[in-house]
Design brief:
By secondary structure, the protein is an alpha/beta fold. The protein has one domain: Peptidyl-tRNA hydrolase (Rossmann fold, 3-Layer(aba) Sandwich). The chain contains seven helices and seven strands. Strand 3 and strand 4 form a beta hairpin. Helix 1 packs across helix 6, helix 2 crosses helix 3 and helix 6 runs antiparallel to helix 7. The protein is globular, with a radius of gyration of 15 Å. The relative contact order is 0.19.
Length: 191
């Protein structure tokens, strides 16, 4: 059974450490955890693969980051899913979430895009919203700051103190979801 795990974000070094790219940070962490290297795929994505579990019960996991911008990520991810014959019901999308406090994690399947352009692009390209989401809380900006500017900023000095633990929990959540299913994952991580 193959799972496609997608980290949303924008390409390029100037965006790599921004709040909008927290999903891609988790992908990088999973690749490092399993000692696999992301490489370019013809679908305009960077991918790496590994096995989760042992023996015949092991899951094939394909990690992916689109090389296009957030609002155009649906096309490359759809092409990648088609290449590996992965249905939307076996796709986990990691993305930043303004409406969840910093470092909180929520999991769900399907639902709206809540104004998130990456989710909007994916749903449009797949023609369905029936994929899993690991929603990584970045909180809302203080005062009058535009949310669009806020997501493109790096994490604050205070947030950076716990970012590694946050990213590690995001990676744990993905693997728990694959192995144990949504209900148990929600019980464990949706705190």
């Amino acid at each position: 059974m193959t799972w496609l795990v997608v980290g949303l974000g924008n390409p390029g070094d100037e965006y790599a450490a921004t709040r909008h790219n927290v999903g891609q940070m988790v992908i990088d962490h999973l690749a490092k955890r399993h000692n696999v290297k992301l490489s370019t795929h013809k679908s305009r994505t960077d991918i790496a693969a590994y096995k989760l579990g042992v023996g015949v019960d092991a899951h094939s996991v394909i990690l992916a980051k689109s090389k296009s911008f957030m609002n155009e990520s649906g096309g490359p991810i759809k092409a990648l899913a088609s290449f590996y014959s992965v249905e939307p019901t076996k796709i986990i999308v990691l993305h930043d979430e303004l409406d969840i406090p910093y470092a909180a994690i929520r999991t769900k399947v399907a639902g709206g895009d809540n104004g998130h352009n990456g989710l909007k692009s994916l749903t449009s390209s797949f023609g369905t919203a029936d994929y899993f989401r690991v929603r990584l809380g970045i909180g809302r900006p203080m005062g009058q700051q535009d949310p669009g500017d806020f997501v493109l900023k790096q994490f604050s000095k205070e947030e950076k103190k716990s970012i590694d633990e946050f990213i590690d929990r995001g990676a744990d959540c993905v693997e728990f979801l694959i192995e144990k299913g949504l209900d148990l994952t929600q019980s464990k991580f949706n705190s």
